[in-house]
Structures are given as C-alpha cells and as structure tokens.
Protein 1
Amino acid sequence: MTTTEGGTVQHRDAPWWTDATVYQIYPRSFADGNGDGVGDLAGIRQRLGHLADLGVDVIWLSPIYRSPQADNGYDISDYDDIDPLFGTLDEFDALMGEVHALGMKLVMDLVVNHTSDEHAWFEQARSSRDDPKRDWYIWRDPLPVGPDGRGEGTDAAGTPGAGTFPTAWRSAFSGPAWTLDEATGQYYLHMFASKQPDLNWENPALRQAVYDMMNRWLDRGVDGFRMDVINHIAKDPASLEPGARGFVMGGRIHDHLREMHRYVFASRTDRELITVGEMPGVTVDDAALFTAQDRHELDMVFQFEHVGLDHGPSSKFDNRPFDLVALKRSLGRWQDGLADAGWNSLYLGNHDQPRSLSRFGDDGAHRYESATMLAAVLHLHRGTPYVYQGDEIGMTNAGFTSIEQYRDIESINWYAEEVEAGADPEVLLESLRFRSRDNARTPVQWSGGDAAGFSTGTPWIEVVANHHAVNVEADRASSDRSVFDWYRRLIALRHESPVVAHGRFEMLAPDDDRLYAFTRTLGDEQLLVLANWSGEPYELDPALHPVLRRRSVPEVVLGNVPHGIGSLTLAPWEVRVLRA
Ligand code: NOJ
C-alpha cells in the first residue's frame, strides 16, 4: 500500500482496486431485454456500452440466481443456476465475456447468511430432525408452557414470558425471527423473511459447501463477490440462548473469513479479484481488522454508520432530519480509522437505501448541482467508490403515494404491522416516501418514452413520473449539465491522479453545518474540495486554506458552477475541486 520512502510517497504496491470504481446493477430494474417487465441479462448486455462509456472498472450484479423472489433474489434456491426470470447460464457466460472484452470485471452477490426455504438444503433439513442437513440451519425447541398456559419464551410481539419463541429476536422484515416448522416441531431462525432461513456457519460441511460453490463461480470466470450481511453469518452462541434480546456479531466471524480466504482466494494469486463484505453495525475498529491486507479476510466492507444517522431510535422508518456535521464527523472518522491499515468502500446509496440525491441533495430546482456535488464529495474520499444504477443521471426517489405501488417485502410488511397496531396510514406512507427501498428500485430511466425505455412491456414497478425530463438520453445529450459526464470525469480523475486514490485525507471546518471541505495530499500534490451542501450561497472564509488567500486564481480540476470560480462565494450546491 502507500508507503513513505526517502520522503517520497510511493503507491506502486497498491492493489488494483484502490483506483477502481464499481457500478452496481440491480438486475430487475436495469434493463428488460425480453419485454416481460422485469430487467434481465439480455437487457444488461444491450446496455454495456453505457457502462464502458462511464469508465467503471467493475460491475456488481445483485443476485440473479434461481430464486422464488420473496426478497427480489436475496432468497436463493439454487446457487448454481440463473433464475429464468433473468436468463440462462449460457447468457450469463456471454455477458461475462462481453464485460471482460470491454475491460471491466464482473462481481457476483454472495448471499450465504441464509438461503431460500425452497433451497434443496433446507427442504432436506426440514424433512426430519435426523437428516444430516438438519444442522446446516439453526433450530430451537419451543420453550415450555406453564400450568397457567403462558410460555416461558416470548410471544410473536416479543413480550417475554408470554409465548414459546426461543428468543426475542425480531426479523429485519417485521415479526419474530423464528418460524415454527410444524412437521418437525422446532423453530428455525430467519433474520430476514420467514422464506430466508439462516444457515448455521458452525457446521463445517456447510462451510465447505459454500466454499465449493464460490470456487465454481470463480472457475467460471467471475472476478469476486459482494458478500451479503456477511458479518451476520457468525452468531454469538449466547445470543441464541433462551431469553436473549438480540443478535450480536459472533467472535468466530474472523475465523470464518480467514478460512474462506484459504479455501477460495489464497491460491488465485494470478487473478485480480475483489471482495467486499456488507456489514451492518460494523465499527471502524472492526473494519480495520476485516480489511487489513495481511489478515487475509476481505478487501473492503460496506459500513452503515453514515446511512443510519437520519434514522430515529425506533426503526429505520423513523425519519430524522439530516445533519451535515454528524455526517462529516462519521465519514471523517472512517477516513482516519482506515488511513494506515484497511480500506474504505464509499457509497451514499444502493438498492437498500433511498436515492442519495433525494435524501441528501435537492432533487428539484438544483438537481444537477446537488447530484454532481454529492458525487464529487463521495468520489474524492479515500476508498473505492460505488455508483448505484441511475445515480449517474441524477435519478430521484419514486414519489409513490399509495401502498399498492410498493413491491418491497420490507416496506409492505412494516406498513401492515404498523396499520395493525393502529398507526395512521398517511403518516406511514410519508415515512415510506422518504425511506422505502423501492425508492431506488424503480426502472432505470433510459429515455423519455414509454416505460422510460426500460421495457416494451409493463414494468414490475412503476417508473418515476419525472422520466420525461430525467433520463439517460437527455442527460448524455446535454453539453454542459450532464450528470453522466460529471461521473465520467470523476472516475477518470481517480484513474489518472494517484492523489485521489492514495492521498491522505484531512477534513476542514468539521463543525460547519453547510460546508463540506477537505484536502487530499500525496507528496507535494494537494487537492482542495469545497462543497456547499445547502441551497443558499455560502461565503468562504479565506482562513480555511492558503489557496483562498492567494491573488492568482487556482487551477480548477472540476467545478459544477463555472461562473463561481475565482470568487469566494459558493453558489447553492456548488462544488469546486482546486489544485492547492
Ligand atoms: C442485504 C441486501 O442488500 C438486502 O437487499 C437484503 O434484503 C438483505 N441483505 C437480506 O439478504
């Protein structure tokens, strides 16, 4: 990694992905090639030119494996096949060949905290308590019921001493995290939907089966994995004891990841692969351990701290106002914490988050300025940036007004549970409008035509009404206000400028609640990033940085409001990247 030798900072040993940018495709919503209303591999193949033009290095595909689609493919029933909804293995091979021919890499989603309840492993496991696969999942007996008819465990609402549920764990998709398998009389654990039973990583045969499956995909030619909720695979045994309140990350997670590395990645030194672990709840200190290169666990993790700052204490749907100072404090701490060992993933949105532009910027009057400002701030941090499909043209939240428009199991279950508990449906819909995952799952807007050019059929989820104005064709045709072109320049800058990939990060004015400013420094090269994170003009204080006190106009590497350059006033949502 970056080292200091004789005063000169070297970065020649840095892994390839330190100057790479990853693009996430959510296949259902990217492009529909066969007109059935659902995105597919044929659609992706037709649009690869868009991604090559953007200049991204890696494409990450959200799950395309065979699946009943209870959670849009994050419930896998066969790890070795492609769901017919998306295409075939032959089409997958063709897609991978085309991606490679265009100089990009292809990363698969790896979902091994759980399978679908329709996976052959689970069907076998639930066939009998004595089946060898029984122990591949997590089973517990119902807790006894006393003479008063009250169980020693919790009830479905989580009340202790009121039912037979083994622990009070709640599923991320509402309701208890345990479902009784009537035929065998035991509960199985599912941290997500009841159709997503959790695998038991304490079982060595299960672990070996997962590694074998990963090896088959790497042998086929894929370039790595994005690992779904990978820190959840190791459950702390104490948190499975009767009465335990919640899930705690188990200590064996590091052992599992190192073992996975040994069985899957260690011998593949001739290939440039990438691993990223999705880790809700991970701390900076944990992440430094997970991503320190000499520990051989993961290349980088997705942390959640910054995307939880606007959640209230009761749930993610308890929306709180955005606080820029808190965001800077958080992201700054992550930059510092992984400065010497480990590596950051950089993201503001994905298929589980609302659209970053609607959440953090102004998706109306200043759509172009705020989309480009957000992109510049993110991409100029130290780490590997992830572009979520549609962000490169400034797509916005869905704007749904009725529960019938939603498709996401998390949103639908939460709404139903809250309505049942007596909440006002209008208030719930307002929360969903901000927070639902469906905000980011609407079809990519390729044109202003029918179904936004996504499909010749009826899309599985409605396209956003603004697709007439916000779409790839219109954006790319714009000579001076193309969000796509801005992303293209940011990605190229990372490729060309070692200071972007490797420079030291320093936050400026951390307590300012409208300015996001920082420097990146490598040897005697420095970039100064000045972003007005507000809809009002911002007066820069010359004391902020020496470059602002010089008489000469500094070199502007990037700017989204050309007329502002040279003045000390940043226009609303303006970002300037200066060579200091
Ligand atoms: C995280 C994925 O990103 C999300 O979409 C999914 O619902 C859960 N993990 C469960 O797999």
Note: The CA atoms of residues 96 and 106 lie 7 Å apart.
Protein 2
Amino acid sequence: MAELDRPQAEVAVPDDWTYASAPESRDIVHIADRYGHFVGGEWLDAAETYETIAPRDEEPLAAVGQGSEADVGRAVAAARDAYADGWSSLPGSERAKYLFRIARLLQERSREFAVLESLNGGKPIKESRDVDLPLAAAHFFYYAGWADKLEYAFPNRRPRPVGVAGQIIPWNFPLLMLAWKVAPALACGNTVVLKPAETTPLTALLFCDVLRQAELPAGVVNIVTGDGRTGAALVVNEEVDKVAFTGSTEVGKEIQRRLAGTGKKLTLELGGKAANIVFDDAALDQAVEGIVNGIYFNQGHVCCAGSRLFVQESIYEPLVAKLERRLATLRVGDPLDKNTDVGAINSAAQLEKIEELVASGVEEGAQIYQPPCILPEKGYWFAPTVFTNVAQSYRIAQEEIFGPVLSVLTFRTPEEAVEKANNTPYGLSAGVWTEKGSRILWMAQRLRAGVVWANTFNRFDPSSPFGGYKESGFGREGGRHGLEPYLDFEESETFGG
Ligand code: NAI
Ligand code: MG
C-alpha cells in the first residue's frame, strides 16, 4: 500500500502530445552522381542528362540520362537479341527461378529501396516501406509461380511469348509499376525495355543492381531513362511487339493513335475519378478511415483514388464533421519521417496542376476546408483538402486532380448514387460502404468501374486483376488476366484438341 500511496510527482506529465521527429536514415542508400542507361546488362553512357531531385526540398540527387532515339534503338536491339538467344525458349521453371530470386532480393533490400523511393518521389516512408515494397516483391513471387503453368492458365490455347515489350510507367508508384510490368512480361517469356517516369528514375536504376545479383541474362530487361520523348521513341520503334503504358489519358490516347494499324499489342492504364459511396447504414468511423485512405494515401497521386465522395443525404452532416476532425490529425511533412501521413507533391508541375484545379473549385462556388498545418518552405507541398457544396458540373468533380483533394457530393437513393457515380468519362475503381451485402452486389453490378471495393478502399493483391473501363484504358494487370497481354495464342481447332 505504501508504494501506491507515494505521490507520483517525479513522473513528468507531458503537456505536449505532438510527435517528435522520427526520420529514417538515408545512409543505407548510395546514389551515384550520374547514371547512364542499362542496356544489354551494361551501363551505356548517356550523351545528354538532366537532374533528378528530391521533391521534399528540391535537393539535387543525381544526373540521369535523357534517352535518345538511338539509345532506345540499342536497348530494343539488346532485348531482341536476348529474346532470340534463349530467354523465349527457356523452360518456364527456369524463368521462374530468376523471378523468385528477384522477389527475394527485393525483400532483402526493401529498406534501401523504400528510402530511395520516398526520397526521389516524395511519398511517406511508411507507405513505401509497408505498401510499395511488399507489393512489388509479391508481384514477382506471384508471376514466378505462373511461369511454368501457362498451359494450365490457358488450356487448349497454346500460349507463346509475344517478343519485346516496351513499357512506360508513371511516377506515383515507380518501383511497384515496374514490378507490375516486368514480372508478367518475363514470366511469359518476353524481354523488356522499360522507361521510368522522368521525375522518379532512381529505384528503377537501383533495380538494375538486383538484376545483376539475380544473374538475369543480359538484355532480358533494359532500362532507358528520359522524358516523354524517350517514351515516344519506344512506342514507335518497329522492333517492339507490345506496348504497355500507365499514365495520363492524354498520352494514352496519343499512343493508341500512333499504334493504330501497326498490329502491335497495347494495354493502357490511364486516369480515374473514382466514386467512393457511403450509405447511411455504413459503419461511419470505418468509412471515414476508408475515405482518408482513399484520397490522401500517396498525396492522392493514385489513379484509382476515391476522389469523389458520395454521401447519403441523411448522414451528410455527421460524416463531414467526422471527416474534417480526422483530417486535422493527419501529419503532413518530411517523407522520410516514420510518422508522416502525407508527404511531398511529386513535382512542381503536379503542384501547379493541383493548385489550378483547387482554385477553380473555389471560383465555381464550392466550399473549401483545409486543416491547420504548417507546410515546409522548400519543396512541393499541398495541404489535405475537402470540398463540400460541389456540383457535378464543377471541374473538381469531373477532372482528375491527382492530389490530396476530395470533392463531396450527396445522393438520396441507390439508383441516384449509381447514376452520379457513373457520370464520368473514367471507370477505373469505385468504393461502396454499407452494412448490406445484397446492396454491395446490386451496386457492383451497376458501377462501371474495373475494381469495386466494398467496405474498404485501395486494397491490392497481385492475384487480383486491375484495369479500367472507358477513358481509364483497357487490358488488365495482376492475376491470371495480367498474363494475357504478354502472350500470343495459337488456338487449337477443336475443343480439347
Ligand atoms: P504522363 O502521361 O505524361 O507521363 C506518364 C509516363 O509517360 C512518363 O513516363 C512519361 O515520360 C511518359 N510519356 C509522356 N509523354 C509520352 C509520349 N508522348 N509517348 C510515350 N510516353 C510518354 O503523365 P504526367 O504528365 O506525368 O502527369 C499528368 C497527369 O496524368 C497527372 O496529373 C495525372 O492526372 C495523370 N497521371 C495518371 C497516372 C495513372 O496512374 N493513371 C500516372 C501519372 C499521371
Ligand atoms: Mg505529361
């Protein structure tokens, strides 16, 4: 008893509950001063370079090659040689060994990759560490498993590889998009030329070291860095048999025009303006977490982000109040801090686009809410934003913002929710929050979206296909479906034959 009676005066009671900074060390990453292109298993010196920076403070990180048409040509030739020299005829079980090795190496080096991804791209370390890296490794593991089972995946269709795949990826999930593209291509026996986005080339360049460790035969994967001009050179190269693109709808349409009539295979994963729909019987606190994850994850630089929130009218006020309260707890700041929820905007150009669209929302009459938060002086930053009083015709309800900006709209009936949700040129993803299973199925049948999440959002698994309707593109990545774009089929004449 005496112990309990003793006054606790010596234990200081904190009066400030803000988080102390908890920066992840960047010592684990070595960044070279200058990078060339990775072609035929070797580094090709780049005649022209540009500087890649850290968006959190605009620190220059490295000089990176601006790939020319000739660089692209060399990479494609190396891929063609590697294809003919054995990769395409290697037994699937042998290809699988390389993919398993790559997957394990990514796991082993995951901290290094996560730090570099956050440094070069601006996303919070907790996301690159807990989402991007585990999922990238999982994609390689998953497709490694398919490599020797293609005949079972497509019975009676005699699958064979397509040839050289030209792959162009964006800056929002640099290593993960690389994994989505490279893993199925190699599993199916193709070789690859990949072009990372201009603002985030560093993890793709580090990945070349993983390929060396895995002893992948030279030329099976080639990486050429540079901007849209490099991408365009890859698209039109005549030795490329298949093009896979993830990025803006504008560039996707341009690529489709370029390839029309060439016979090249094409998949496009483009923009989105997803509806996240909350019914009045949903668990509101969970829904709020899902809404926050849906739009503020990765600063909203997510093609399937839940950027249009549809709330059933009867719960509009309590839900918006909860959401605004939750927003005030998000920590915006240094991507390398382990406590950061919302990191830096990827580039000056993207920040400008977000600012312009947000200004248009205010101009058109929507009500803006931003929690009080102090943004760093240097670098590219934007506070988490919610717009209420939004009409469907406003630009913020129609156009992809690709930033931490949510537009809230309302509905009364399920029919109205479906009609409003589908009122967009896009169709990549959607979310439904309700207690009723039958309503989830009813909604999922009617929503024109490639993925419909129920009582969750932004969930990914390599075994689950992902892709769009309408202007969000075509073709699927992930799952067994994700193999198809990388295969040609020699359909047998008779069933079972
Ligand atoms: P973008 O479509 O220009 O860039 C994506 C990739 O395509 C990059 O690697 C880029 O170098 C390459 N590229 C650009 N022009 C090309 C061309 N003519 N031929 C071949 N490749 C080309 O996207 P950007 O300009 O970075 O972002 C603009 C908007 O696009 C964003 O604000 C966002 O709304 C949307 N976007 C959507 C993405 C998605 O995941 N669906 C990813 C990135 C951007
Ligand atoms: Mg662009």
Note: The chain has a mean pLDDT of 96.
Protein 3
Amino acid sequence: MPGPLVDTFGRVHRDLRVSVTDRCNIRCAYCMPAHGVEFKPHSAILTFEEIERFIRVMAGLGVRRLRLTGGEPLVRRGICRLVQMLSAVPGVAEVAMTTNGVLLAEYADELRAAGLARLNISLDTLDREKFREITRRDDLAKVLEGIAAARRAGFTEIKLNAVAIRGQSEDDVVPLARFAGQNGFELRFIEFMPLDGQDRWEQCRVLPGEEILRLLAAGIGPLEPIVEASSRAPATEYRFCDGLGRVGVIASVSEPFCDRCGRLRLTAEGMLRNCLFSTEDWDVRALLRSGADDGALADLVWRAVRAKKRQRGTDQGQFAETRMAMHEIGG
Ligand code: SAM
C-alpha cells in the first residue's frame, strides 16, 4: 500500500527519529543509570547501509523528515557519512540531529558539509557543578564550545532542550532563557517523562509547563503565545514581549500532544516503534537481515502505523508501562 502513512486516528506520519546508538558519553540520571548499563553489541546495531535501505522505503511511504538521535549520535563512528547518505535519499527533505553537544566542536563543520539541516542541543543548566551532578560528567565547557562551533559552522535555528524536573530545574529556567535569548537560540523545556529506566519517575517530580512559564514571567517579563507556531511541533511556543526571544514548552506529561503526533522511531537495533511509550515494536532488522524485499518492509511499517494507540502508548490516556529507558529508544 502506498503512503502517506495515516493511522486509524487520521494522524499522518512524515517524521522518523533514527537512533544510531544506545551508547552515550554522559549519564543523565533521568535517562540512564550511572553504572551497569548493558549496551547492545555492535553486531546488533543496524549498519549505515541497513539504515539507508530502510529510509528509502520510508521515504517511499511519505516520510520526509529524519532526526538522528541516540544514545548520543556523535559517538557513532562515521556519523557524518550517515548524514550524507540519508540526505541523498530521494524524498528526504531534511536530516536533523539531537545531541548533547559534548563532541560538537569536533564535528560541527563536517556535519554541516554532510548536509545536516538542523541541530537540537540538550542543555539543562549553565552551572558547572550542577551540570556535573545531572550528567555525572564535567563537560559543560565542551557543550558550550560545541554550541559556539555549531553557530560558526552556519547552523541557524539552533534549539536548546532542557528537561524540567521539580526540585532540580527551577533555578535554571531564567538563566537558560537569558542565555538562549541573547544568543538567538530557541529554548524548549521538556517535562520529565517516565523513561529513566530506573523506575524513579514520579508525577510529583514533573515541573509542569505552566509553572515554567510563571517562573519565566516573574524572572524576565511577560510572554505571549505564538499563534503561527507549527502545528506539528510538540512544543507550545511563546515569545517574550520585550523581544528577548522565544521559548517552547513540551508538555508531554501535563498536556500531551498525541493528537498531533506524526512521529515514528527506529531504535539503534532496528526495532520500529510507533510511540515513545509503545509496549510493542516491529522488527525491521530481522527483515533486513533475512533478505526481505521492500514490499515486506513497507508492510511491516504499515502494521506498526495501524497499531498506533490514541495516546502515550494506550487507548486509555495513562502512560503505557514501557520498561525501556530514553537512551534505548532514542529521544
Ligand atoms: N544524547 C542526545 C541528547 O542528549 O540530546 C540525544 C538523545 S537524548 C535521549 C534526547 C533528549 O531526550 C534529550 O534532550 C534528553 O534531555 C531527553 N530526555 C532523556 N530522558 C528524558 C526523560 N526521562 N524525560 C524527558 N526528556 C528526556
């Protein structure tokens, strides 16, 4: 069956997150445990050629935007070659990346030359000691260098992503917004989701979007909603009335945007997922490695899309109980 990939709720799927590794060079407590993580062996991870073949099939089904993620995509050796391969696939309009920025100073120019269109960089705090506590690594300076290098390399529309956790993030909200505003980046706060892989998530640890907006208004000044914001963006966007710039809130917990979700995800080991919270996945790798033809791959994709539930992996509205951590799925 040809694309576009429309699910049973009428949602059209044109975006695919491609995780290229489950490994990471930092250890954010909300994403993975400090020790004892068992990473997948290299043989279990899709090769670049396997990813490219699958993307050709997806592009044939109407998928237009790719975002490379992980784990940390920049720890995957040869990542710029993958960017180049995927940018050249007919039908793919954009290849973007989400990164923690630690290795970005090294790769920014090469990524740009390879055709990477956009960068989202994760940054939860501008305080060195706090950064070390959150990520269990002392790498804030490298991230800031990476951000500067990305700008020099010609990336525009850089977005900074900060996870919002009650009791942790409150003091960072205003400094991050000032930093983003003064440098021309859009800042987005993401509500803490139950994907830490350690069962430590609790509703009371979510710093809701509404409260973030109150902190911003009190610390900087009034904000107004941006009405023309893209309807497919997960963030609700605002601008400061004094012109400092824009901020977004990804209220995945307090105000889920599942009715507008047109995303699919491919894990590093080649499992297709129709939701972060899906309790099921579809084994692309097995098909790729058993010599299946493109038709069989497209059928698998359609099965995944048709099985997509209404909200957060269920039809009921609560979070489906996935046991996977964010770094294993690809955020
Ligand atoms: N390593 C890259 C990075 O740090 O941007 C890409 C992968 S990371 C899993 C993608 C995004 O997911 C990051 O912005 C991270 O902060 C966010 N994230 C991870 N765990 C999360 C959680 N439990 N709730 C909300 N966001 C989370």
Note: Residues 24, 30-31, 69-70, 72, 98-100, 122, 161, 163, 190, 192-193, 195-196, 326-327, 331 surround S-adenosylmethionine (CB under 6 Å).
